[in-house]
Amino acid sequence: IMRHPKDVCVSMYYHMTGFKLFEYDGPFSEFFDLFIHGMVCTVVEMGSWFEYEKAWWERRHDPNVLFLKYEDMHGNLQQSVQEIVKFLEMDVTPDVIEKAVEKSRFKAMKEDPAASMKWKDPLRKEGAPPFMRKGIVGDWKCHFSEEQSELFDKVFHEKLDG
To answer: Shortest CA distance to 49 belongs to which of 103, 89, 2, 95?
Structure first.
């Protein structure tokens, strides 16, 4: 699942500042610089987001890869679940699809202790927002300055175009 990269940056910031194991307490502006330069690899398991996504983007047409966008899922979860069912060549009833859709909604997942990772609360920093924070599209607009947005766009195109 690919998500808007600016939203990924914000989400990763809250992930890193929320868990004790990352030992990161810096401001978003500092994290932003680390993120766009692919320097969070020492504290984030996936390394550079740009390299990670580029590798998957290049495989998006492989027959064993289903490439979904978070924003599409957010906008039409029913359709996304149906795409997954088709990709997996599953024979399921509409009732099963509807149950999957309902259990996959952000609100339902946030209330589910297993999905919301409530069991990891002892590993979170005191006062940190919950693991599943907002589940919205476009929250980056509340965090990025105009300069950061422009710089991100420039870096995005330098690293992923072509």
So the answer is: 2
Give the residue among 54, 64, 50, 28 at the shortest CA–CA distance from 148. Answer: 28
User: H-type helices in 37-69, by residue range?
Assistant: 49-58
Q: State which amino acid sits at residue 142.
A: C
- 62 backbone φψ class: left, alpha, beta (φ>0; ψ -120 to 50): beta
Instruction: Label residues 70-93 b or e (16+ Cβ within 10 Å = b).
Output: beebbeebeebbbbbeeeeeeeee
pLDDT tens, 60-104? Answer: 999 999 999 999 999 999 999 999 999 999 999 999 999 999 999
* Residue pair 159/50 in contact by the 8 Å Cβ criterion: yes
